[in-house]
Design goal:
This protein is mostly beta strands and 271 residues long. The protein has helices at residues 64-70, 124-130, 155-159, 203-211, and strands at 2-8, 14-20, 23-27, 35-41, 46-47, 55-60, 79-84, 88-89, 95-97, 105-107, 109-115, 131-139, 141-142, 165-173, 181-186, 189-195, 221-223, 231-232, 238-243, 247-255. The chain folds into two domains: 1-48, SH3 type barrels (Roll), CATH 2.30.30; 51-255, Fumarylacetoacetase-like, C-terminal domain (Fumarylacetoacetate hydrolase, domain 2, Alpha-Beta Complex), CATH 3.90.850.10. It is 10% helix and 40% strand.
């Protein structure tokens, strides 16, 4: 298994590459993972979200256990919404409460699929080769906005605020998702612990079926949906989502205006 990360260098360059033994072995880009020959110590870099998606496709009702609890039928096609690029932050960056919203803010620990090459109308077999690797997602939601208007559920608004899509800390390739679990803790207390093998649609199926609806570009992310244990975050609360083989993604909820949003996060664990 290989670990890939994205950083801000000391000369304000965004660098991407493979992390080994505390060093970043720089590559041109996710789309063109060709080594540049540069080797940079991770300790001198600031971690960013591991990719810069044009869009994040976020699934709903993609786990059998949650569908059973909600008494919802298992879908025949992935049910999804789009989170904008501006919602993406990396590990260690603050989740900012929207200034005009005082309601509940929910976390959702999820696996993220990172697209490695453009795909449109691909088969399941082709989709598997279009996946660069996997990361961790916290799909954040302003829960009370979702059904604020009884005539139109506001999925994109409720989930699309700046900082409402936490990604990281790394991308893992050759990752065996079938044997992995998502473990989410809120202020150190375990809230989610579910197997990825319970997914309705496999990652390759998700990529294939979504590619029938839209073109997926390198760096785009598909958030695979969540399972049991979703809850709300109080001000100052810290959410950590761990998947063995990828790492731990940690972010804290703060009130907008109390923390200046930074372009790069503090270094985060990966492994």
């Amino acid at each position: 298994m290989e670990t890939w990360m994205r950083f801000l260098s000391t000369d304000d360059r965004i660098v991407f590459g493979k992390v080994e033994d505390g060093n970043l072995h720089e590559h041109l880009s996710l789309e063109h993972p060709v080594p540049t020959g540069a080797v940079l110590p991770v300790s001198a870099l600031k971690a960013l979200a591991p990719c810069a998606p044009r869009k994040v496709v976020a699934l709903w009702n993609n786990f059998h256990a949650l569908a059973a609890k909600l008494e919802k039928p298992v879908p025949a096609h992935p049910l999804f919404l789009i989170k904008p690029a501006e919602s993406v932050i990396g590990a260690g960056e603050p989740i900012l409460r929207p200034a005009h919203y005082a309601g509940k803010i929910a976390y959702e620990g999820e696996l993220g699929i990172v697209i490695g090459k453009r795909c449109r109308d691909v088969s399941v077999a082709e989709a598997a080769t279009s996946i660069f690797g996997y990361t961790i997602v916290n799909d954040v939601t302003a829960a009370e906005l979702l059904n604020e208007n009884p005539h139109f559920p506001q999925w994109c608004r409720a989930k699309g605020f700046d900082t409402f899509c936490c990604l990281g800390p790394a991308i893992a390739t050759d990752f065996d998702w079938r044997s992995a679990r998502v473990v989410t803790t809120l202020d150190g207390v375990e809230r989610q612990n579910y197997p990825l093998s319970d997914m309705v649609f496999t990652p390759a199926e998700q990529v294939s079926m979504i590619s029938q609806d839209m073109t997926l570009e390198p760096g785009d992310v598909i958030a695979c949906g969540t399972s049991l244990g979703v809850g709300s975050i109080k001000e100052g609360g810290s959410v950590s989502i761990a998947i063995d083989g990828i790492g731990t993604l940690t972010n804290q909820l703060v009130t907008a205006g109390l923390a200046a949003r930074q372009p790069a996060s503090a270094a985060a664990s990966a492994g």
